[in-house]
Amino acid sequence: MAGPSASLIPCGQYKTDYRRDSTIFPTPMSRGFAIAAVLLLCLAPLKIGGTELLSPYQLNMLIQIGYYGIAALGLNILVGFTGQISLGHAAFFGFGAFASAWLSNSLGVPVFWAIPLAGLLTTLVGMLFGLPAARIKGLYLAIATFAAQFILEDFFSRADWFTGGSAGTIAQPFSIFGYELSGDRHFFYVVLAYVVVLYLFGANLLRTRDGRAFVAVRDHYLSAEIMGINLTRYRVLSFGIAAFYAGVGGALFGHYLSFVSAESFTILLSIQFLGMIIIGGLGSVMGTLMGTAFMVLLPEAVQAMSQSVGNVFPALTEGLAFLKEGAIGLAIVLFLIFEPDGLAHRWKMIKAYWKLYPFSY
Amino acid sequence: MQSETTPILQARDISLRFGGVQALTEVGFEVRPGELFSIIGPNGAGKTSMLNCISGRYSPTSGSVLFKGRDITRLTPNQRATLGLGRTFQNLALFGHMSVLDNIMVGRHHLLKNNFLTGGLYWFGGAQREELEHRRHVEDIIDFLEISHIRKSVAGTLSYGLRKRVELARAIAVRPDLILLDEPMAGMNLEEKEDMARYIVDLNEEWGMTVIMIEHDMGVVMDISHRVIVLDFGRKIADGLPAEIMDNEHVKRAYLGVDDDEAA
Amino acid sequence: MNTDLLTQLLVNGVIIGTLYGVVAMCFVLIYKSTQIVNFAQGEFLLIGAWTCWWLLTSMEVPFWLGFPLTLAFMAVFGVLLQVIVLRPLIGEPIISVIMVTVGLSIFFQAMMKWMFGVWAKPFPEVFGTKSINVLGLNVQTPYILSMGVSLVIMVGFAWFFKFSRFGLAMRATAFNQQVAQSLGISVKSVFAMAWAISAVVSALAGVVVGMVNGVSQALSFFGIKVFPAVILGGLDSIIGAIVGGLIIGVLENLAEFVDSQYLNWGNLYSVAPFYALIVILMVKPYGLFGTKQIERI
Amino acid sequence: MPEAVLEHPEPVDAGPKPAAKPPILTVNNIEVVYDDVILVLRGVSLSVPEGEIVALLGPNGAGKSTTLKAISGLLRTENGEVTRGNVNFMGEEIANLAPEEIVRRGIFQVMEGRRIIEDMTVIENLRLGAYTRRDNGVKRDLDMVFDFFPRLRERTGLAGYLSGGEQQMLAISRALMARPKMILLDEPSMGLSPLLVKEVFDIIRQLNRELGITMLLVEQNARMALKASSYGYIMESGKIVLDGAQQDLINNEDVKEFYLGGGGSERKSFKNLKSYKRRKRWL
Amino acid sequence: ADPIFVGHLVDYTGPTSDVGKPYGQGVADALAWINKNGGIAGQPLKFETVDYSYNAPRAIATYKKWVGTDKAVAVQGWGTADTEALVGFVANDKVPNFSASYSGHLTDAAGKGPKGTKPAPYNFFYGPSYTDGCRALVQWAAADAKKKNVDKPKFVHLGDNHPYPNAPKEGCAAYATEMGFQVMPPIQYSLKPGDFKAQCLSLKDSGAHYAFLANTGGSTISLLKSCDTVGVSTQFLANVWGMDENALRGAGDSADGVMFVVGGADWKSDAAGMKTVREISKVSDASGSEYRPVHYMRGICSAFYMRDAMVAAARMSGGVNGPNIKAAMEQFKNHVPAELQGVCIPSTWTAEDHRGTTKVFIYRANSKGGQQSISMAGEAEIPRKPEWLGW
Ligand SMILES: Nc1ncnc2c1ncn2[C@@H]1O[C@H](COP(=O)(O)OP(=O)(O)OP(=O)(O)O)[C@@H](O)[C@H]1O
Ligand SMILES: Nc1ncnc2c1ncn2[C@@H]1O[C@H](COP(=O)(O)OP(=O)(O)OP(=O)(O)O)[C@@H](O)[C@H]1O
Ligand SMILES: CC(C)C[C@H](N)C(=O)O
Ligand SMILES: [Mg+2]
Ligand SMILES: [Mg+2]
Questions:
Q1: Would you list the DSSP string of E216-252?
Q2: Which residue of A86, B205, B206, D154 is most buried, as measured by CB atoms within 10 A?
Q3: What's the whole-model pTM score?
Q4: Which of the listed residues B175, B198, B219 is the one where a domain comes to its end?
Q5: D120, C171: Cβ pair inside 8 Å?
Q6: What is the ipTM of this complex?
Q7: Fold of C3-283
């Protein structure tokens, strides 16, 4: 009676020791695949013989997927693994951005250090707002985080010393050993490095003690507690970790854009983060990245499409902007109707299908 | 099993109320190390509530619980687990989306030292070594309970009987000195009950765990337990050897029914 | 202390609060029966108000006809929405469904902007007398009316859930869809019904607000205000929704009082409910009237 | 599932058996798949004569609950699907009907694990049982149910706080409130004290006798189940492997050994099972 | 010839889309018209219109792309938040930004203003600055108060906590104090429309005689309606984006009597240049029947000043590039684009002072029982005080 997951390991692949049995990548193939993907990405910003491999536009998309993807992974740890819905993730993302800008502008911390430090500061804030999780659960908690979103947004627009108030603040370009990495082509590597490190860290975390504790708290907190898990600790900790990822993602965002203002961190972005992890697949590390890519590329695709629609039906140009906005909403709705378990699930099914092919039943 | 050592668990005059319901009234008993101790009683008698008081889910309105001579009445459930108290649940309480393996690994939680930092750094902080080492212990448990074929299955998709077994495995993984089993055989057929009985006896005799078991199957209770108490309407109505209990008129009336033991 | 201003603000709070209460009730209705947190609740007001506005101005239908037509349309709209969009999601993780309502909210907002523009449009005069004076505050007739209507709706809802057969069915469905089905309850019709009622009552609120403030995108902000209200009251309590709505309404206005008289921060009005929300949840994790989740093992 | 040793190479023919009374329900060779991939029932057929109690026995995971859910239509909420075969109730095909339709036609399933509505009171649960009914006998039936289960009358609080046994009683009572023609009972004795098990089975028989309700009974307590029923099916790994009239089954050596305990002679003690492992299966 | 790339930022869907639509349309139509009529000395303009929903960071990202990838020589911008955030960038990149933000801070080209604003050498806008607009309204209010014999009238600023409404807050308050007003603590109301009765009650309670509405039309409608409901009798004064024909229609009678700033001709004007305007309007409205709100004309002016500067730059060495456009702009003295006589107010820029014009038209909104109109109520010439530079 093999469960569905057991069947994903291809036939003929027998584990000979526990170490092999507990790698992040179930097969050497998938591991090789991942390494190849990272290497390939390293080439992305290069120019070969004067022609760019990727246009600046495409590179920009990748960078966005990178920093949003980092923050989204944090949210997935909180929502997908620990089961605590947060509607305030954008605020933490924003806090990281402001914190990093502030550290480098006002305290003169080099940006290289400001980014992880901003992550740590955000962790503190995240844990502070996560404290209610000790007492509040489920949707009540979700809406408490919704409140956190508005409270922090308000803070951003009035804490002049920290955020530059409603006008926002400039963020320094990234530099390392006095060497400035500001252009997209350079910054890409910074983001890539962060993505690789933080995704590996996340995947490791989730397969070890504390990661299991998160999932246990999600699946059955009463029995988790009786198994020796301190509920409050893990509930708050997962807010902290989520905030750390958000903070680092936000800091990268700020230094990439070189300008930070409260408008980037509205409830809409919080919801988009949720969209990323739901579309990618709750509780799936790689799915998070897929979901992020989906949410980043969707508006672009819609933009391109609406442009051509506008060309065909000039009468529609008037409402094009709204059509575009509406199309994004609609795409989310349709996606979830047809793929409610997310991209990661679909991906698994596809893999399973090919593994078992032609005996796919 | 009549050693003179101190009891591993003492329940002293435990009373518990929920609003208008008096679930337990001054229930007291002692369990000696190495005992296989059963609690029986009609539905709603307060058996599960009693286990909940021991494992810390409920805190008794009055009375106290002593574990290995130490008063644990005020401790949280997770603190009790670290002291060596494990349990299973009447209504399945597995982590439904985790694999069987991970479910059992959760039982090792308090024995593991790695945390989110060392865990995240996996290869560099010793977490890997520790995980693999504990994995070995877990595999022993898996072998013992004969669930190696479902090791990687998602717990939520297993059949009822298997889930019960995984739950037992998870409780064993806590490495408890005292394990509390709430109706471990409910919903099983004869064959599975026999398996389960065997595991429990082994657990008790070979792994040296003290067991407190709630069970309605009188055949099992009478065969394997060393001592039995009977609860009825939240009160202890009998306490003794299995055979004595079977003959107790009060117990027959309240619990077994007047006929034979055919229901078992 | 400026008691005059305070009274006026409090009256204003009660009036706006009942409206929050009504919308919150609609929200709770959907939550209670389908476990869906409806992020598109505000858009129901918007769609209802625009429909009525369109019937009254562009179609020049008289109010006594246009208004019921609007409600009928909204009932159909609610059912269709449920059937087309939400029904396929029965049995899917609740968070996916929530996300779908977010998508719907984005979609409807865009469509409304497209169809009716970004500008507020005045609602045709319906009542002869525009406003009456309550404790020194001019209160618009539709608002007074809305309070009456709200009260009736509130009592109706409470009765419905406690005693009616269909209300019980809704609660059963909320508890567990499979169990409800095993009892012979058509989960589909329960859902459709819940969405229809919610859409109709929200539209009613939308029309009332539209009459006073004009119809505009702004109506959808009720969808946000509803969150503090329902959480304060307790997600699954109809009474709680009303009380929560009133509290939020009054609280906002109190905050405005403190702000304008003493603090001069400028926006305490809009954030105060959220501070209150967190404080109250810390004291009462299930809001004021929410049922505590049963935790038995 | 434990690995199986094939000892009976020929599967027992499991086609619907002609029964004494006309069948009210026949299940024809159905196949059930979960999540589009997990094949759980592999051609199950059975029939239940009107007014009788039929038992369906088998080890954990055999697919008993799945069979019941396939009949009552509740599979779909679990992402399961009847991919082949048909289910016939009183001459009508019901395999593709919505669950509420099936309830309306008179089949009521009491699900495994009680599944009462925890945040409602006992009375509200019972009233919901009568949801599909339009007549006004609900009040009277409430009294009838309380006569069968007097202790429920006193429990006025939320059903979630009832003890396991009380919840089971409530679940059965709720089925009665629907006045069904047929009840599918999934492990009604699970978690009940011996006294209550007896009580429940007495009531099941009484209900069958007095109200003429047909029952399909899934049980682990084979002894009690067979005692109560006139015919039985035994299912393993998604297939019916044996069926027969009550006496035939009770006297069948295999059934005795695996389901009733003790191959004909004495009941063995649970204590001395140590090295004793049986791995024999019909397949 | 190679096209000259101009980035065009608009808000068609965000919180300021109410006024963003007509203004953006004005710019877009004008640029298209310019191309049709010879472009810049034979070179066509290539412009990309991006709707950034009034989200400053998105504007920055777009700007970076224009400069990095498209080699933009100039930008037609929109909001205050994004324009002010971009000040440093455009100065670095030497890309003139013709914004629709008339924030006084942007006029201090060399950073020599007394308020320590940072230099904004590459920022230009056409029209009176927000502060000057507000000053003009304060002048009008002072005269009005005198007429009504109000002694020490009270003045209050209403607006969101956002760079745009905040821009004139201090400068105008200082001027009001100077003019003998008692300035009350500002009242905040959101840029997004909503229910503002509580704020109106505060306003009413404050007893303010004159209230300056610093938001855009959409939220102003809500405010006027709410204030009407609670019976506020304050005289409202609206910023240049705060009132127009659309807002008037939305607010109905509650907008009657609102005085507001206008920075150019209105659609009904019979100025000579309106002929061109009507032609330009046909770019997006072939029938020529559409009514264009006041912002449309300012959009056209903004595009034409840029064109004139580009034409001048084309004759300089280096051709049409950022520094040349800047230099050309700073040579304009009382300049009006040739085709737009009477539509745009004559404007002057210098290397240090980017206050193009300090002349303000004051209009009155009229609405009585369905009859609505806007009418010019006067004009004011705000002195170019050096101490007001950048304020
Ligand atoms: N959390 C609770 N709140 C209110 N009442 C409770 C709670 N837990 C248990 N009870 C009540 O306490 C009594 C004892 O319940 P308990 O679950 O301990 O019975 P039990 O002996 O385990 O019965 P069973 O054999 O049926 O499981 C019951 O009447 C039950 O309704
Ligand atoms: N929702 C589901 N999704 C996937 N697989 C399922 C699902 N429900 C049941 N199964 C699988 O179908 C098989 C049969 O399950 P079923 O519950 O019908 O067994 P059962 O005979 O009732 O067992 P038990 O006696 O333990 O109740 C099991 O292997 C189980 O893992
Ligand atoms: C408010 C809007 C109309 C845009 C305006 N240009 C600003 O300064 O932001
Ligand atoms: Mg119990
Ligand atoms: Mg079953």
A1: -HHHHHHHHHHHHHTT--PEEEE-TTT--HHHHHHHG
A2: A86
A3: 0.88
A4: B175
A5: yes
A6: 0.87
A7: ABC transporter involved in vitamin B12 uptake, BtuC (1.10.3470)
